[in-house]
Amino acid sequence: MGEPRLSLSCSFPRQLLSADTEAAARSLIGARLARGRGAEAAIGRIVEVEAYAGLDDLASHARFGRTGRNAVMFGPPGVAYVYLVYGMHHCLNVVTEPEGRAAALLIRAVEPVQGEDRMRAARLRWTRVRASRYAGTSDEAASLRIEGLPPNRLASGPGLVCAAFSIGRHDDGSDLCEPASDLRLEIAAEDEPLPVATGPRVGIDYAPEPWLSCPWRFFVPGNASLSVVVPPARRRVAS
DNA sequence: GCAAAGATTTGCT
DNA sequence: GCAAATCTTTGCC
């Protein structure tokens, strides 16, 4: 880095997000997530998303209707919906479909393109603030772990994307299609289209069929930056 | 008002 | 393979 960078990218067309959510999901795969500007920017290609569509999707936060938390899901497309899960991790969604309809795409994994150092520094900051409080986890051990991470593990999960891009509640409601936004979506002319595979969504064991099994997880097959999917049997059980 | 669970990640046994 | 960490949001009394 340090060399001047010629930007061949432009902002992500909002129109693509106002189409139906499955089409929007496919168009978002391969798009870029960017934080900051110029040579200092952290940029990654989106390689995994999940669709949460409509009030009747019993896996979606919109299933209880419009609430304080999910309000932006009902708003215009292209806006960020950021929420806190499990009391410690943030998740980034891109709102889809026309205003008035509750739908969004969860960004589950990103492949670093530029600014790995910045992502690593952000991960380290997050770890020092939060994970260092884990029982028995020392600051030094946590630092060593982050330093040793390969680039394709820097943003390979929904919580990790937010840690690597310093995404928090302060980004909730920001416009990701606005070129002037610090956090935004972009398309680069030099990028080749990526293949897309589908599968069931992750971490929604509370949802009944058909929502539990419908193939609304979209990802680039074989990509090294995909999230690690935890089998349902290993997920948290109520005591 | 209070209790329960969660669109996750990590470390230890 | 299993459970902890952590706190906001939602649902129910």
Shape category: globular
Low-confidence stretches: none
Specify the helix fraction band: 10-25%
Number of domains: 1
N-C termini distance: 50 Å
Strand content: 15-25%
Give me the CATH architecture, please. Roll
Arithmetic mean pLDDT: 92
* Order of SSEs: EHHEEEEEHHHEEE
Query: Rg, please?
Result: 17 Å
CATH superfamily: Methylpurine-DNA glycosylase (MPG)
Tell me the structural class: alpha+beta
Main sheet summary: 9 strands, antiparallel
Number of helices: 5
What is the CATH C-level name?
Alpha Beta
At CATH level 3, the topology is: 3-methyladenine DNA Glycosylase, Chain A
Note the topology.
Layout: E1 9-11, H1 14-18, H2 21-28, E2 32-35, E3 42-53, E4 80-85, E5 89-95, E6 103-114, H3 116-129, H4 139-147, H5 158-164, E7 183-188, E8 197-199, E9 217-219
Antiparallel strand pairs: 1-7, 2-3, 2-7, 3-6, 3-9, 4-5, 5-6, 8-9
Helix pairs in contact: 3-4
This protein binds a DNA duplex (13 and 13 nucleotides) through residues 50, 52, 59-61, 64, 67-69, 83-89, 91, 93, 106, 108, 130-131, 133-137, 145, 157-160, 201-204, 206, 227-228, 230, 234-236, 238.
